[in-house]
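Hey, resending since the last one bounced:
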Amino acid sequence: MNYNFKPYLDKIENELKAALPLLPEQQWKNDSFGQLSPVVNAVHISPLISPTRTLVNLGGKRWRPLLLVLCAEAEAEARFLEKKISKEEMELCVQKAYHLTPLVEFVHTASLIHDDIEDSSDMRRGAPAAYITYGTDTAINAGSWLYFEATVCIDNSKCTEEQKGKLYAAYAMELRRLHLGQAMDIAWHRDNNARPTAEEYLAMVRCKTGTLASLAARIGMLASKSTATSADTASRIAADIGAGFQIIDDVTNLTTGNPGKKRGDDIVETKKSLPVLLFAKKYFDNEEKCVELKSCFEAARKDGIDSPAVEKAISLLEESGVIAAAKEKGISLVENGCLEFQKLFGEKNKAAEKISYLFKNMIEPKDEKKNHLEKGGQNV
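The C-alpha cells again:
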C-alpha cells in the first residue's frame, strides 16, 4: 500500500514556521523571552533567527518530526481500538504531536550548526555552513539558543502539566546523550590512531544520531499518553533505526556523496565510520593494508577534499567489501526496527504500517513512490 505523506509534511512545516518566524510578532517574543525592554526589537533578535531559520528553510530530512507524529498516531490508534479513548481524544493526541514537532527538528538544526563548526565543514544542504555566512560567534550563539527555543512548544502546548514534565525530562535526557555521542565522535576523529570497536561505534551513533529518533518517538508516545514501558520500547526501536540511517549515511558519503556535501569528506575529517572500523578489523593482522589506509587519511586531512588520497581510500574500502557490509548492517537495523514497531502497535495498526512504508522507502526509494515522500523537492 502507498501512503502520501505530503499532508503530514505540510502541517509540520506550518508548525516550524510558526515556531520560528522570520518576522516575529509580539506574542512570539513574549513566549520566547518574556517581557523585554521596549528598546529590544527585531534587529536584536535577527542574529538568532536568521542563521537558524535559513538552515530550516534549506530543507533537509523531516523524517524525525514525521516519526514523532506517526508514533503519536499509532499509539492513539491502538488505544482507540482498545476502546480506551474516543475518536475525538485520538485526534487531539495527534494535534498535540504536530505542535511538538519543532522540539525535535530544532534540536536537529542546532546540532548541525555546531557540528559544522566542530568538523570545519564548508557546506550544509548545498549552501555555505552557518558559521561561514554569519561568523563563528553568531553561529555558536544562535545554535545554542535554538536548543532552548525548541522547548517553547512544550510550554504553550495543550498538554497537561504532568505531560509537560515528562516531555521536559525526555528532552533533557536525550540532549545529554546527544552531546555524549558527539564527544565520542570528536575524540576519535581528532586522533588518527584511535581504533574504536564496531560495538563502540554503534554505541556512539545511538547517542549522536539515534537519540534524535529516540526523542521523536518518545515525544510522540507521550503526546498520546502511552505507558512508560511502551514509550521506552518505542524510544529504543527508534534509536536503532537512527543508528541504521547514520550507517547508511556513512556509506553514502563514500559512494554517491551526501546531498549538499562532497563525496569522501568524512575521510578528510578522519571520521571513524563503520566501513573504516570494519576495514581495520578485517585487516587486523595485515599491517601493510592498515598503514596504506592510514596514509590516505593523513594525506587527505593535510591536502583537503581534492587530494587523490580521498579516492584512493574509497577504493581500498570498496575493494575490501566493508562498504557493502556496513550498508547491509544499516539496512538490517532499519528493517528490524520497522518490524518491532509493527509488533509494538499491532499488526493491523495503519499508522505503524506508515512508519514501515516511510523507512523502507528511505532506504531504497522507487521513482513512483518517491513523489509521496517529497514536498517542494524536499526529501523526507
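The longest strand covers residues 123-124.

Sorry for the duplicate.
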